[in-house]
Amino acid sequence: MIHAFDATDLTLFSIKEPFIEEEISRLKDGFIFIDCGAHVGKYTLMAAGLDRGGKIVAIEPESCNFDRLKYNILLNGLTNIILGRFALANKDGRVRLLIQTESGYHSIVKLSLHSVDVPSRTLDSIIQELETPKVDLVKIDVEGAEYAVLIGGLRSLKMGLIRKIFVEVGDSTHNCDKIIQLLRSCGFLCTRTSLTANWHFVLGVHKFEVRDG
Question: What is the pLDDT of residues 20-71, one digit of tens each?
Fold first, then answer.
């Protein structure tokens, strides 16, 4: 895959996150992958490059990131990606997106002197629009808004419409514990990998998938 990015994206592209990369590599033919916080498309393009007839939903609220995401998709001639320029939150409506210095850290919860008004959607409403029996993998990297995104996807989580969910938590262990507790209450078996005191990865596999697999 060809990637076009500016200097502020280079560091983020060079960071290796083997946990999500491994889960993407395991996606099967005809997969559905939702990339929540797609940035400029690193994992969206990785999934599209599998060439397994899958469909990707890439969601990115910040305008400059979204434009580069769209350009990267066009640059590679990809037609199996649905783009969404909005924030994911606990309800449909509008939220303030707080703009950070680095392009990968914009957030609806982190403090900033500059913000913009953007549309917001819930994970439930996205999955309902897809009209698919199951979503194979959801990746959430939303800079502190992970719990709100999960609340906005409670119906799908409880109904087992998501096979696997991967959440990056760049915050305290307490917030990570809250996320694991919520996922377990929805029937997910969870594992946590902590790289530092404030950088965690949570993988949830729904119990139906464990039973059937």
Answer: 999 999 999 999 999 999 998 999 999 998 989 999 999 999 888 999 999 9
> Which structure tokens are listed for 8?
């502020």
User: How many structural domains is the chain composed of?
Assistant: 1
Residue 11, domain member (yes or no): no
Phi-psi region of 46 (alpha: psi -120 to 50; beta: other; left: phi over 0): alpha
Whether 51 contacts 26, CB under 8 Å: no
> Both tokens of residue 92?
């449909």
> Is 205 domain-assigned?
yes
181 occurs within a structural domain: yes
Going by their DSSP bridges, the two strands 114-121 and 135-140 should be labelled as unpaired
DSSP assignments along 115-156, one per residue: EEEEEEE-HHHHHHHHT-S-EEEEEE--TT-HHHHHHTTHHH
| Domain ranges, residue 120 | 28-212
pLDDT at site 212: 57
Whether 154 is covered by a domain: the verdict is yes
Residue whose tokens read 């599209």: 48
- Each residue's pLDDT tens digit, 163-183: 999 999 877 667 899 999 999
Instruction: Supply 178's token pair.
Output: 């809250």
CATH number at residue 170: 3.40.50.150
- Give the span between the Cα atoms of 148 and 34, in whole angstroms: 16
